[in-house]
Each structure stands twice: as structure tokens, then as C-alpha cells.
Design goal:
By secondary structure, the protein is mostly helical. It folds into 2 domains: 70 residues, no CATH class; 135 residues. The chain is built from 9 helices and no strands. It is globular and about 50 Å long. It starts with a helix and ends with a helix.
Length: 206
């Protein structure tokens, strides 16, 4: 059973690494691949990450990446995988703010800044589970259906112990998700500031 879980985790990381590489190629080349090309490239790259390449590598590439970053949260994984959908839209700004604010409160307390340990709530606190379910309902009310599905699937993955961790937090939050959220917020702020500067320059008297 443990070997099967390790295989699934390796497949998951291989797909994730492939998607990150594909998004990087698209961003820097300014190319837009059709869905068929994306799926073909994903298949090829996933196999390159999953299988051990050559006799000089003891482990597949995905295993080395997993050894460095660990298992990503289900929320991070599904957000990334959803970029393959033809109707993909970016996460709303409110979601990014929520992640940043939660991380600002969570990590210092979890690292022992106070007597409160929010990480312990992830081991089966009914109140914490209700709060997570409420966040899924809020996503639905805000018309972000994808967010509802992502949180729901994260809870299901936690229930069936999809990853090695038994803590719900590990299925909802990870440092890379936090970094992505903060980077997106900073980028948005700089973009708005740049647009405001340009607008002020264009309409400046004289």
C-alpha cells in the first residue's frame, strides 16, 4: 500500500513539474499552444520526469523535486492542473488575499510564536473542518465554482489519506501557494500603480 501511495505521489509530482515547465515555456516564448499540443507535451514531459533517465540517476527527476519541495497541497496542485482547462480563468483576487492573510497568521503561530497552535487543528478539529467547509460555500456564493470543487476535493483527499500527512492543513496550504499569492498581489499592485502613472501622465495639463 505504501509503495502504491509513493507511485501516485510520484505521478502527481511528475504532472505538476511538467505543467510548471509548460507554463514557463508559454510565458517566455509568448506562444499559445492548442489543447491537443498541450496534452501531447504534457504526456512527454510527465514521462521524462517519472522514469529514471539513464544509469547515472538513482531516482526519477520528479523524486528529486519532491525531495526538495515535498508534497504540494491539493489546492496548489488543482489550481495548477486547472490551467489545462479550455475555460480556465485565474483565481480571484479575494482568494489570493485570503491565502496571504491566513499564511500571515498561520505560520508564525504554528512555529511557536504564541501558545496557540493552529496546525494542531488540522488533526481533526470539527470547528476547523466547518470553517473550511464554510470557505467552500463562500466560494460558491461568490460564483467561483472551481474554488468550491478544489476545496471539496482537498477535504476528500485528506479523508482518504491521499498524501502521507494526516493533517488537513497540508492539503490546503503550502509555502509555494503562499509565495504565488503574495507575488500575484505585488504584481497586481505594481501594474495598477503603473497604469495610474501612465493615466496621470497622459492627462497631465499642458
Amino acid at each position: 500500500m505504501n509503495d502504491l501511495m509513493q507511485t501516485f505521489a510520484l505521478i502527481e509530482m511528475s504532472i505538476t513539474c511538467s505543467l510548471v515547465l509548460m507554463l514557463g515555456i508559454q510565458k517566455f516564448s509568448q506562444l499559445k499552444f492548442p489543447l491537443a499540443a498541450k496534452l501531447l507535451l504534457l504526456f512527454v514531459l510527465t514521462n521524462l520526469f517519472f522514469w529514471r533517465l539513464g544509469m547515472f540517476m538513482e531516482l526519477p527527476l520528479a523524486a528529486y523535486v519532491r525531495g526538495v519541495v515535498g508534497d504540494l497541497s491539493i489546492v496548489s496542485t488543482l489550481l495548477l492542473w486547472s490551467t489545462l482547462l479550455p475555460s480556465h480563468k485565474g483565481a480571484p483576487i479575494a482568494f489570493k488575499w485570503s491565502i496571504a492573510i491566513i499564511a500571515l497568521c498561520f505560520y508564525p503561530f504554528a512555529l511557536g510564536l504564541s501558545m496557540i497552535d493552529p496546525y494542531a487543528w488540522g488533526y481533526g478539529s470539527n470547528i476547523f473542518l466547518l470553517a473550511v467547509l464554510l470557505s467552500a460555500v463562500i466560494c460558491a456564493l461568490a460564483n467561483w465554482t472551481k474554488g468550491t470543487w478544489i476545496i471539496g476535493l482537498a477535504i476528500i483527499a485528506w479523508v482518504i489519506h491521499w498524501h502521507e500527512s494526516a493533517n488537513l492543513w497540508d492539503y490546503l496550504l503550502d509555502p509555494l501557494l503562499v509565495i504565488w499569492s503574495i507575488f500575484a498581489l505585488v504584481s497586481l499592485f505594481l501594474q495598477k500603480r503603473k497604469e495610474k502613472f501612465r493615466s496621470g501622465y497622459l492627462f497631465r495639463p499642458g
